[in-house]
Design a protein that fits this description.
The complex is a heterotetramer. Chain A is α+β, with helices and mostly antiparallel strands. Chain A is built from 6 helices and 8 strands. In chain A, the strands form 3 sheets. Chain A has a 3-stranded mixed β-sheet. A 3-stranded antiparallel β-sheet of chain A has the order 2-5-7. In chain A, strands 3-4 form a two-stranded antiparallel ribbon. The chains are: A alpha+beta, B mainly alpha, C mainly alpha, D mainly alpha.
Amino acid sequence: MLGEGIIKGMAVTAKNFVGSYRDPERLTTVEYPEQRIPAKENARQFPFLVFDGDNPMAGLRCVACQICEKECPPQCIYIEKSKDKKPDHTGKPQFYPAIFDIDVSVCMSCQICVEVCPFEAIKMDTEFELSTEDRFGGLLLHREQLAKSVLHHRKIHPTEEAEIEARRVEERRKAEEKAKADAEAKAKAAAKKEAVPVQG
Amino acid sequence: MDAIFAIIAALTVVSAAGAMFLRNLVHCALCLAVTFGGLALLYLKLGAQFVGFAQVLVYVGAVAILILFAILLTRSGQDDGHNLLSNKWWLGAGVAGAVFVTLAMCVQGSFVTGNRIPAAADPSVKAIGTALMSNYVLPLEVIALLLTAALIGAVIIAQKEKETGK
Amino acid sequence: MNELNGYLLLSALLFAIGLAGALTRRNAIIVLIGIELMLNAANLNFIAFWRYGPNPEALTGVMFAIFSIAIAAAEAAVGLALIIAIHRHFKTTDVGRVDRMKG
Amino acid sequence: MDSTTFFANLAAPGFDQLFVTLKALLVSAFPEVIQPLVSIVLSISAIIAVFGLLFAITTVVERKGLGRIQNRPGPNRVGLPWFHVGPLSHLNGFGQWLADGIKTLIKEDIVPRSADKVIHFLAPLSLVVPVLLAFSVLPFGRNMTPIELDAGLLFFFAVGAGTELSVFMAGWSSRNKYSLLGAMRALAQMLSYEIPLILSALTAVMLVGTLSLNDIVVAQEAKPGQWLANWHVFTPWGFAGFILFLIAATAESNRSPFDIPEGESEIIAGYYIEYSGFKFAIFFLGEYFGLFAMSGLAITLFLGGWTAPIAFLSFIPSWMWFFGKLFALIALFIWLRGTLPRVRMDQLMNFAWKFMLPLALINLVNVAVWHYTGGGMVSWVVCTLIIGIPYLLLGRTLFAGQKLGPRTYRYAS
């Protein structure tokens, strides 16, 4: 009969209308500034620089190798190498970036810089609230703004960070072993050196 | 001769002139709608409420819209600029002017129009309805027939070409 | 000048404007508009004479106006249908160029 | 209504006649010469204020209601400025209309370069003025008709005709193909649905025997000794007429599901695509005022106007009944908008000419039958059959040859 479908449809909408008041679970809207959906693990916005420890500038993993600067398709990274060196996590002396700028208004979030980095020093952030009143200066992030603790990365990408952490522990262990072996070898050599006169 | 009549009359005449002599046909039709509205106001002022509202309903609501549709359907919204008036336009204008002068002289010279006092009675809608259903029932039926015939005729005329073309 | 004269003169003026338009313009639609204007001028006369006439209770003028409005509506419908048919046939609405009897 | 009636009502003050008394008091405070003028100005400002506010509230309620129908919360942010403390600071979004109004007021008014400037400017005005005029004959309560006209219904439809012209003016003057398409659609739709609208309204006129809207309402009031009011919607022909009127009114005021003149997904916004800022707001206002006026007329003709449905409920003031019914009808329109998808142009025209028009004509006969059979049990059965059988038959033929099975999708599912 004509009109039957209209009445059925109106019943459905009425059910939704009443239901949305009685059962808040039905409301799919997330009221953003107050409520947020936790970011998915693979979410990515713009890159940031990882540092270890408490001091952001001292703990930067970046060694200013400039691979990311060369690979970046929109060329939004600018790096200047330092004159001096400082030890990295394994204790090896490395350069560090005196200037590390990313223009996030140019960045296209392609993640190539992350993929090419041999030192796990640059990672993608999930931070998206970057609005600023100055569209040139405000969106050009310097290394002080870019540096974020490894703890932050562990929070947003736990799986990946666990892998990296394991690898780095391994690296450190190897470095230590090597150091130990070197030390032993040195000690042996020294002992030999010492022994030689005894023998000799 | 009061101010309200003067205002409405001026509006009606100006828009009627616009309806006749503007270049853009859509403007003409819109001016015509204003003329119809002005006439409806004059009817109201004369105490013929029913006729005034019927005028708006039929003329502004239907005839003006019909003319607009016709203008758009025949794509004559913009005149091409030349040949706005027919070749012997001065003849037509002369005839119209003569008609007006004659009518005006008749009106002014007539004894019938001398100092009439407007009648007081406002016709109620009920009185009009009763009259339509008693004294004027035959014209009413004829009008009904005419309207039906016009409806069917208009449809057939407008459709004719299409059917033969098939 | 009394009031009835004012209405009658206005009606005459409207009639003359309509007549002038219908006689001088080339476009068929404008000719139709002119005819409508003339009909309306006549209606105004009917109403004015009814109002200032000897016995307004008879409603003769009002009835005339009502029937005239109905006829004008029918006339407009048929007239515009004719104009559209002519336009389909001759591809013009210029009354001066619609001069052949044979289709 | 003239001032003598007001003074007569002064003798019987009460909640029911609150506004009438108030107006009489205000008018009597002015000198005799300008009293009619003051009375008119008071009526006009009351109408504009009340319906303006109603329009504002309706826009918010509509958006919230539609949101709830789609399981969204709807606007719930904008509250009053400078009051951002306490639990009521957001007003649950009911300050939205103020923000929208301010926004449209201060937006740039863009007129297309090739537009017909004068007509482009006049179009929104010529939409709002007739619609506002239409309010002047609606009876909002007992003795609360702004102008008591003998031919009130005719006046209502006559001024309604003016809106069609303004739609055309807006569409044509914008020099935009979408706006012209929208205007032509709107005109075709309005002209087609005006016929069933007037025919279904005529049923009430036929039975009551007057075109005066106030008299139609008085005729529907419960007579002494009756417990149920004589609302026309309580009869078979009245119910059918009400439904037909409601459908035609929906189409006439371009509301969903008959909103193809606006058709956002096809022709963007129809005839007011080239309007921005305050002119757009006026169009919006005009549309809603048209809806209110149509709802008011439906209430007056079929839902008993300002009368109470049951006799002992008449202690509630008459104007409250009117506005209560108005709110209910507006809610119904919102509900319909949230439920039904937009129809196609051919469906729309078929529905008007092949379904609405015959049914409206049959309903006219139905009223006559009801009148001459006296309204008893027999006439109930006969009248229900007279309107019911054509409804079933026409409904069937309308869908003849259409397969309306469950919808299948090629790629989804």
